Records
---
Amino acid sequence: MSNEIDALLQEHRSFPPSDEFRRNANANDESVYDVADREAYWASWAEQLDWQTKWHTVLEWNAPYAKWFVGGKLNASANCLDRHLATRGDKPALIWEGEPGDVRTFTYRELHAQVSKFANVLKSLGVRLGDRVAIYMPLVPEAVIAMLACARIGAAHSVVFGGFSSEALRDRIQDAEAKVLITATAGYRRGNLVPLKKLADAAADDCPSIEHVVVVMRRAAADELDDTVSMKPDRDCWYHELMREASADCEPEWVDSEQMLYTLYTSGTTGKPKGIVHTTGGYLTEAYATCKWVFDLKEDDVYWCTADIGWVTGHSYVVYGPLAAGATVFVYEGAPDWPKQDRFWSLIEKHKISIFYTAPTAIRAFMKWGHELPEAHDLSSLRLLGSVGEPINPEAWMWYHKWIGRERCPIVDTWWQTETGSIMITPLPGLVATKPGSATRAFPGIDAKILDEGGNEVKVGGGYLAITTPWPSMLRGIWRDPERFESQYWAKWPGIYFTGDGAKRDEDGYFWLLGRVDDVINVAGHRIGTMEVESALVDHQAVAEAAVVGINHEIKGTAIAAFVIVKSSRAEEAKRDPAKFEKELKDHVSAKIGAIARPEKILVTVDLPKTRSGKIMRRLLRDIAEGRALGDVTTLADPTVVASLKDKYEEES
Ligand code: WTA
C-alpha cells in the first residue's frame, strides 16, 4: 500500500480540457465553485425539475437526519418521462442491445407508455404507496421499466443484482418485506442463460411477504424456446400477459419529496447487508445536477454507463439522472468479452456512443486484452469518458486516455457511494485539469474534507474522507435500522458523515482516494464485507473458523483471500485432496452470496493470529496471502509458524 501511495504522490502529469471542450461545456466558468449559499444553490437545481407542489423549506437538518425540499411534491417517473414528452417525445430514451445482439429502442413516448402500463399492472397486483417491490433481473429494458413503474405509483423498489444467490435475494426480500418480486426467465451471460426464475423461486418460496412474482420472458429469438421455468399458480404471472391488458394511462402519484424512492442493499462491516434508503426530491435533484455537469449531457449525446441496475451506479446513472436530464441512454445486457473481447468497442462504433462511463476493473481487463482491439474500431463518436467504483491506477488511466479517448476525451474519475446517492468528488470536464489517478475536486456544493482521527481537517496530506455538511441525495437511513445508521456513519465525529474511505489531498487541493479503511473489500468495484464471506465460510460444515482479507489483484484491484481453520473431523480429507476441498469452499461461498464473493485463494491454517484483545491481525494475513511474510504458505500447517509470525509482527507494530 505504501508503495502505491508513493507512486501516486509522484504523479505530476496534468491534462487540462481543450479550449473547445471548455467553451461548449455545461459548466465552463470557474465561478460554479463559489457556492456561497448552499441551500439556494441546491434549490436552483431542484427548480429545474417538475414539482406538483413546491417545497416551503429547502433543508431541515437534525443531524444525522436530513429533509430536503420539505413540503414539495413530485414524482420521479414523471420527471424522467412525462416532462420530456412535449419536447423529446420522439427522441430515443433507451437504446438497448442484448448479449445475443437483439436491439430494442424506446422513445420517450414509448417508454412513458410502457412504464404507465406496468404501473397499472403493479396497482392491479395490490401494490400501493410505500410498498416495497423486489427486482431481480437481467439488464433488459423491462428492468428499467419496472423501476420507473414503482416510482410512478410511489412504491419503493429494491433491486437485487442478478448475480446474487437465492439466499442473498431471500435475505433482502425478507428484510424489506417486499410484496411483489419481478424477475425474468433468464439472462444472457457469456452465451449462457442464467436461470433467474429458478433462483428467484428458491428465494420467493421462503418469503411470506411475496404475494406475486412477475416474470419477464427473456428470449432473444423466437425459435429459442425457454420452457425451463415453472409457474406457481396464483402467485406467478407473465409480464407480457399482464401488459397486454393494461391501460397506458396512469396518472403519477405525487409523492412527498421525502417519500422513499428505493432501498438498495450494500455491504458493510457486519455479516448483514444494509438497506440504504433514498428518497425522492433531493436524490433526483442531485442525480440530475451531476449528470448535467459531470457528464456534460447535451441533446444529441448517446450516453452509456456500463453498470448493472443492481448497483447504485445503475440507479443514478443508468436510470434516474440521465433520464431526468432527457438523455439517450444506451444499455447493454451482457459481458464485455462476448462473443469477442472487442464487444464494447464494436457497440460504441455501432451505436455512436459519445459518453462512456465504466469501472477501472474493466479498463484493466481491456488493457490485458490489448489496445489492438479498440484500435481496430472507429471510436470517434466518443467525447467524454468516466470511471467509477474504485481507485483508478494511473497506468489504467493513461491507457484509457490514450487508447479509448484517443487523447481527445476528458476523463471524469468520479468518487461516490451507494450512501451518497450521487457523484461527490469529480472533475468538471470543462473546468478541471485532470491528473491520472485523482478524482480531483468536490462537486460544487459538496463539503468534502480530509479529517484526522480527532476530526481536525488535514489540508495537505492523508486521513479519512468525510463530508461535513448535508447534501440532497444523501442516504436518509438504513432500512429499519436507525442505530446502525447512526453508529456506522455519524459516530466518529458527531454531525459529520464518515465515508469509510481513506484519502489524501495534494497541494492543489486534489483528492486522491486510497481505498477502504474498514472491513469492506472492494472486489472489481463491488463492495463485499469480510464478515459476510467469513459467515458464509463457517456455514460450511468443515470450517471451524475463517478470516477474510483483501489482496492485490491485477484485474479486480482487490481479490478475496480466506484463511480457514478446518474442523478436526474433516482435517484429513482437506489434506488428502486440497484442491478439491478448496473448490468446495469456494463453491459454497458462491452459492451463499454470489460469484462476486468467491474467494480467489483459500489458505488452510491451524491458527489465526489475533492480538491480545482478540482482534484478527489482518495486516499479517495479507502479508502471508501475498507471499510477503512467508515464502511458502503451506507451512501454515505447522502450528508454531503462525505463533512466531504473530510475535514478530507484534514486536514491529
Ligand atoms: C469506492 C459505487 C476511488 C470507495 C459508486 C467507495 C472509489 C466505494 C471511487 C463505494 C473512485 C467508488 N475512486 N474509490 N472514483 N468510486 N469508490 O457503494 O471505496 O458500490 O467507498 O458505490 O467504492 O462503493 P459503492
Note: The first strand starts at residue 57 and ends at 62.
---
Amino acid sequence: MPLPWLKMPELWQSRSGCGILDLINYKENGGTRMRTLLKGGSVVSGGGARRLDLLVENEKVAALGRNLKEAADRVVDVSGCFLFPGFIDAHTHFDLEVAGTVTADDFASGSRAALRGGTTTVIDFACPDRGESLQSGLSRWHGKAEGKTFCDYGFHMTIDDWNESVRNELPDMFAQGISSFKMYMTYPAMMLGDRDLYWALKELKRLGGICGVHCENAGVIDGMIAEKKAAGALSPASHPATRPPWLEAEAVARLLRIAQTADCPVVIVHLTNGEALREVQRARRRGQTVYVETCPQYLLLDESLYNSKAFSDAARYVCAPPLREKGEQDVLWKALRHGDIQTVSTDHCAFTLEQKAMGLEDFTRIPGGLPGAETRGELIWSFGVARRKISAAQMCRLLSENPARLYGLFPRKGTLQPGGDADIVVYDPSGSRIIRGEDSVSAAGYSPYEGFATSGVIRQVWLRGCLSVEDGTVLEQPPHGRYLVRGKCSL
Ligand code: MN
C-alpha cells in the first residue's frame, strides 16, 4: 500500500517516539512487537478504578497487573493519573450540509478535535437525501471520512423516508457494519410521520437494530415559529420560546407509545429536561427498553444565554432542542448518577460565528448546533466527577462502556481489557486549564464553554497503541482512523 507520507518521517515522528511510524516500522520489520508499559496509573472501568500497570502491544492491550515486570520497549510514567478507555462520541455531525451551509468541521478537523478531547471513536450520521438509496448515502459518507479521519469511526444510518426499497436495503446496512439508525420527529426535510416511525421500528425490531430518535413536536413548533415571525420577533431569544420542553416531552411520550406498539427498544438522543425523562421512566415501568443520551451543553449551559444583547453571543448557542432552564441541569446530573441516562455524547455540529450570522435577521436561519467533541471529557470530569455528582466509574460508563455496548463495539472498544484496542485517555486530575475558543482545534473558532476552568486535564490520548495527543496538543500524524464494522447492541 503506497503511503506518501512515509517519505517525511521527521514530520510525523511524535515527540515521545512512539508514533504511527514506529508501529509501521515494527510491522514491516517482520512483525516485531512494539510494547509500551504505562506504569503507575489507575485503570478505570464501569466497575471502579484500580491501581494497575497496563501493557500495550502494538494496537492492543496485552496485560494489566500490579507492578508488571514485563519487558517493554518503552515505559511511560502515568502515576497519579486515571486511565480511561478511549471515549466514544456516538453523536457527531462532521461535513454535513445544514440550512444552505456546511458544518465548519469536516472529518479531519472534527476528528482532531475529538481526539484532543479524549475521543478515540466517533459515530457520525450518514444522511442520504430523501429519495437517495441508503447505499448511495453511505458511500458518500465513506467518501467524506476515508483517509482524513484521525480517530476511529462508524456511522449510524439516517432513515428519512420509509418505503419498500429502504426496507429492502436494511439488511445490507447491517452487513456493512451499521447496526444503529436515526429518525427525526421534526425538521421537514427529514422527519417521519407516526405511521412510518411505527413501520420502521417494527422492521428494526425484526432485524435486531437500534434507533436513536430526535424527539420534538414538529407541528406545534411550526405554528409557534409562524407566530413569532408574524409578530416580528426574529431575534435568537425566540428560538427557545418556540421549542419549549413540553413539546420535547410530548414527542418522547408519543415515540415511546409507538415503540411500545412496535415492541422495539429505542434511544432518546439529546434529552434535555425532566418532563421528557419522566416519560421515559413511565415507559420503563411498563417494561419497555429505553436508552437515553444527553449532552454537555444541557448539563452546563442554560437558556439565559439566548438573551444576550449581541446577536452573535446568543446565536452561538442555537441548537435543537435548545438549552433549558438552569434547574434542569440538576435533574440531568441526578439522572446520570442514578443510571437513568446511559450516555453523554456531544451532538457536535459546529458552525463559525460568521455562519451563525446567516440568521441575523431571522432566528430560523441560524444554522443549529454547537462544537463539543473537544471538551466533553474534561467537562464531565470537572463538573461531574470532581464535584462528586458522579463517580469516575460512572463517567467511564457514560463516555466509554455504555456507548460501546449500545452501538456494538464492546469489548473491542469501551474497556481496557487484554485483547481490546489500546485506546487510552490518560487523565491527570491535578492539572487545570481555562477553555478558550482560540486554543481549540475545531474550526468553529469559538467554544460554548469559553472561560470555564477545568479540574484536571487530558495528558495523553492513545489511539490503538499510538500516542496521538500529548499535553493538549494533537501530535502531527497522518490520519489513521479506521472505519469500524459494528455488531448488535449488547447493553
Ligand atoms: Mn444531532
Note: The pocket of manganese (II) ion is lined by residues 91, 93, 347, 349 (CB under 6 Å).
---
Amino acid sequence: MEHDLASMDIEELRLLMGELGEPAFRAKQTLEWLSRGVRPEGMTNLPASLRAKLAGLPFGGARIIECKRSHRDDTRKFLYELDDGNIVEGVLMSYSYGNTLCISSQVGCRMGCAFCASTLNGKVRDLTAGEMLSEVTAAEAFVPAPEGRKRTVTNIVMMGCGEPLDNYDNTLRFLRRATAADGLGISPRNISVSTCGIVPRIYSFTEDAPHITLCISLHAPTDELRRKTMPIANAYSLSELIPAAKHYADVTGRRVIFEYALIEGVNSDDEHAHELARLLRGVNCHVNLIPLNSVKERRLTGVTRKRAAAFAALLERLHISATVRRELGTDIDGACGQLRNKHIATQKEEGV
Ligand code: SAH
C-alpha cells in the first residue's frame, strides 16, 4: 500500500475495498470516519471483519500525549506521538475569527536555520499526509468546537517542525485532503504554507496550490546577512528568491507573506528596514515581523516589542505593508521545536 489509511481519498479507498473483496460503498463510510480521525476499531457501521482488515494497515495517526495551556492567552501546545513513537508538536491559537492550528510537516528538519529549535538534531523523517491530517483531527477531538461553530480548527498554518516544501508530495496530498469537501473541508484561503525559500518548489507550488497562502521566511534583507543564519541562502540567492515570490503573487493575484524574525544586533536596525524596503519594492506582499523567540540552545535574542513596532512603522513609511505578529503562548514554549526538544531531553534524563 502506497499511502496510509488516513491520507486516502475516495478513489483510493474504493480500490482498496476492491482489493479487500468488500463492496464499494464501504469506501464512503470509511472516508466519513477518517475525516474525523477515527481509527478502524471505532468505525462502528463497518462489519467487524472489515474493521479488523483495516486495523492491520498503516493508519498514519497522531495522538496527543501532552497539552500545555497558556495562562496568558488561550494558546494550547500539543505534543503528538506518531504511530512509530516519534514526537512532533502543534499549537492551537484562538483569534476572534476562529482557531488556527500550527502543524508540523517533518520530524525534525534538515534546513539548519541558526535560530530554530526544530532543526537542532536534523531531520528524522517526513510526515505522511495522513499524519498531518491526524494532527488536525486529533486537535479537533481534543478541543470541542466553540458554541455555534461547526469545528474547532478553522485555519491551518504549516509553521511547526519541518520544511513543508522539502516534503512536497505529502504536503500537496495533505492540502488536497484538508480542503476537499469530503475531507476536512477547510477553505484553502484559510491555509498557509511557510517555506525557508526552496526556489524551484515555490514555482511548482504556484502551479499546484495557487489558492493556498504562501509565506516565505526571509529574516534578512541581503544575501550576506541571510547566509549567516539560513543555510538555504547558500543554495538560492535573493536574486532568485524574490522573483519566485513575485511570480507567486503575480500568477495567483494574492499577496505573498514574508516572515522576518527580528534578532537583536543582527537584522533589526533602521538600515535593515531600508534595505528590506528596497528589496521588496514592487512585490505584492506583506511583512510579518516576529521578535525572535529566544531559544535556549542558541545564542540569539529577540528585540523588544517597542523596537519591533518601530521597525514596522519605518517599513510602513517606506510603503511596505508590515505588522508585528501577536506573541502567543510565550509561557509554554510556543516557538517551534522547543517543547519537543524539552520532552526528548526529559526522556533522556529519565532514562526512557
Ligand atoms: N520551514 C518552514 C516552516 C517552519 S518555521 C520555514 O522555514 O518557513 C515557521 C516560522 O518560524 C519560520 O518563519 C521560521 O523561520 C520561524 N522561526 C523559527 N525559529 C524561530 C524563533 N526562535 N523565533 C521566531 N521565529 C522562528
Note: DSSP finds twelve helices and twelve strands in the chain.
